[in-house]
Amino acid sequence: MQVKCFDQPAELDLYAAQLFASALKEKPESTLGLATGSTPIGIYEKMIEMYENGDLSFKYATTFNLDEYVGLSPDHEQSYARFMNRHLFDHVDLPAGKAHLPKGMVSDLEAECANYDRMLQEQPVDIQLLGLGHNGHIGFNEPDEELQGGTHIVELEHATREANARFFSSIDDVPTQAITMGVGSILKAESILLVVKGADKAEIVKQALQGPITTECPASLLQTHKNVTVLVDREAGRLL
Ligand SMILES: N[C@@H]1[C@@H](O)[C@H](O)[C@@H](COP(=O)(O)O)O[C@@H]1O
């Protein structure tokens, strides 16, 4: 596991965007695993800049997002589908139909999970971008006695809903469930880029990288992967 610490969040964003640009240059038809949350927004901004300057193209790429809220339609303001359009897809040359997110509004959620896993098996992720939840979640894999390997439905922890309530009018509007890629699917990626910013994540990133490998901190399972790069800003990395 390689850990890189950046003085300025913007330097981190540029470094991460450049890693994706290099991956796409080397293999234009790469499958990219993408994440939502506030952490990757700056990275997506750099990717858009690079695309506009002709330094990055998604023309032959495929993307899979980690997760989606159950019960929000793709055009709901706070759906992750809408987030991805707003922060990346609407601004770059990724062909329509090549961006995949789990569908949180289908009647048969179990079939959707199986379908997502089947697509991931057919197009394995080359490089997976990950943020980190305050409780150590990755995607929406919440701490638990057991974790599930494949795509599945999760009950969101109150703390996770509280953390995400800032994007909704009130916590009551935050969905109680999500559909997420499992930790097993995440660990199948060829390479993983974990990005962590802010003083409030310093404790959990230390636990994830240097603490015991435990399902009670899903991100700690990343310690078992052969090709993980962790990018932290100075505040998040201060205990490492
Ligand atoms: N499901 C997402 C995660 O994929 C994200 O990494 C995490 C941290 O979000 P943020 O980057 O806003 O702190 O929480 C959300 O709930």
Automatic annotation (TrEMBL):
<comment type="similarity">
    <text>Belongs to the glucosamine/galactosamine-6-phosphate isomerase family. NagB subfamily.</text>
</comment>
<feature type="domain" description="Glucosamine/galactosamine-6-phosphate isomerase">
    <location>
        <begin position="15"/>
        <end position="228"/>
    </location>
</feature>
<feature type="active site" description="Proton acceptor; for ring-opening step">
    <location>
        <position position="137"/>
    </location>
</feature>
<comment type="function">
    <text>Catalyzes the reversible isomerization-deamination of glucosamine 6-phosphate (GlcN6P) to form fructose 6-phosphate (Fru6P) and ammonium ion.</text>
</comment>
<keyword id="KW-0378">Hydrolase</keyword>
<feature type="active site" description="For ring-opening step">
    <location>
        <position position="142"/>
    </location>
</feature>
<comment type="pathway">
    <text>Amino-sugar metabolism; N-acetylneuraminate degradation; D-fructose 6-phosphate from N-acetylneuraminate: step 5/5.</text>
</comment>
<dbReference type="InterPro" id="IPR004547">
    <property type="entry name" value="Glucosamine6P_isomerase"/>
</dbReference>
<feature type="active site" description="Proton acceptor; for enolization step">
    <location>
        <position position="67"/>
    </location>
</feature>
<dbReference type="GO" id="GO:0042802">
    <property type="term" value="F:identical protein binding"/>
</dbReference>
<dbReference type="GO" id="GO:0006043">
    <property type="term" value="P:glucosamine catabolic process"/>
</dbReference>
<dbReference type="GO" id="GO:0006046">
    <property type="term" value="P:N-acetylglucosamine catabolic process"/>
</dbReference>
<dbReference type="InterPro" id="IPR006148">
    <property type="entry name" value="Glc/Gal-6P_isomerase"/>
</dbReference>
<dbReference type="GO" id="GO:0019262">
    <property type="term" value="P:N-acetylneuraminate catabolic process"/>
</dbReference>
<keyword id="KW-0119">Carbohydrate metabolism</keyword>
<feature type="active site" description="For ring-opening step">
    <location>
        <position position="135"/>
    </location>
</feature>
<dbReference type="GO" id="GO:0004342">
    <property type="term" value="F:glucosamine-6-phosphate deaminase activity"/>
</dbReference>
<dbReference type="GO" id="GO:0005975">
    <property type="term" value="P:carbohydrate metabolic process"/>
</dbReference>
<protein>
    <recommendedName>
        <fullName>Glucosamine-6-phosphate deaminase</fullName>
        <ecNumber>3.5.99.6</ecNumber>
    </recommendedName>
</protein>
<dbReference type="GO" id="GO:0005737">
    <property type="term" value="C:cytoplasm"/>
</dbReference>
<dbReference type="InterPro" id="IPR037171">
    <property type="entry name" value="NagB/RpiA_transferase-like"/>
</dbReference>
<dbReference type="Pfam" id="PF01182">
    <property type="entry name" value="Glucosamine_iso"/>
</dbReference>
